[in-house]
């Protein structure tokens, strides 16, 4: 769960405070609303006191996320008093108004027009005939660092997983025209973005709802398909990272693009479990036995492929045998980056009504055991990188001069880092090559490729040498 507060844009016009909660897809919604506000001349405030109205973009995926959203609404009301609620919890307007009757408006997820109307009602924009419109080639307002951006290619989902209420919050799959996506990506690349993170509810289903309709970009017709989208993004010459990919057979066609360096050798696939019985109860697609074969074939084509996934332990009806099946599958699949959660009931999800709920202490025990295996696999895989040369993208520079960076196998905020020492003059957004010198279970350490060091025996008499050469 991330929380982002928009930076100031200007000083003259009414000010909107913005609290953004939840996943990267919600963050894109926040960016789009802020871009429209900017286009109408609104400023943003980084404090409650400086804002004329507060917009809270909520998350409603889990009960714990809902509680955080409700706390954020309450905080905004207490600190400011004028609050507009939007996002995934907006579909539960009656519940929100029962707890906070004074909210100015409640809208659902990605209902941009309704949010703009609500802002206009609370604080109308000031007419300014000299204010230029936001140029068509503008990248708009972004809440991420300048060197990476999320690219949302579709809304909604056609799956009906028993633990998930996303379709009731965001609707069925609704893909964007491929030319619109590629043009947005091109604008972001021209604005200095070094990495695009492709997000949706079901990235590999992209285009299914619009029958893979063609549209034109750069003088060529492109299909609204996962493969054509990947090929088009691969022409931009920047990092492209794929998130929320179901392991459908047609994903195979994108692996060669990764091997060729067109897009990053990285797939974020939410496997959730491996036991056939539990997957059936979850109403998840896919055959896990075939998935193991597919993973093996992917790695044969692209040996540097990094797989990230999330899993749920303690799902209703999960026995010790089901859990051990999951552990064995994880060992066989050797997933590089792993996140896991103990099952949590979600109001409105079918899984809440299933029998044989697992006791909380058992869920927590299984979560700890699962993560112990995942950590061991991660540590072994990262240790194998020691001595290798890795391409790295710098995210930040610490006060001691150490650069906090990521390799091609690390997505921002959810994966590990590589800590770079020995470089000079680095800044956020720089791409560099580094030799990995050290690893633990989650992170790497690196130095400039070609760094030559003196390795003198302590106390030995220094001998006369030529100048030490360091190539950074």
Automatic annotation (TrEMBL):
Question: What does UniProt give as GO cellular component?
Answer: cytosol; ribosome
Q: Which GO terms describe its molecular function?
A: 4 iron, 4 sulfur cluster binding; aspartic acid methylthiotransferase activity; metal ion binding; protein methylthiotransferase activity
Kindly indicate whether the keyword Transmembrane helix belongs to this entry.
no
Enumerate the spans annotated as Radical SAM core domain. Answer: 143-380
Q: How is the cofactor bound?
A: Binds 2 [4Fe-4S] clusters. One cluster is coordinated with 3 cysteines and an exchangeable S-adenosyl-L-methionine.
Give the CDD domains listed for this entry: Radical_SAM (cd01335)
SUPFAM superfamilies xref list: Radical SAM enzymes
**A Pfam family per the record:** Radical_SAM
Question: What is the official name of this protein in its record?
Answer: Ribosomal protein uS12 methylthiotransferase RimO
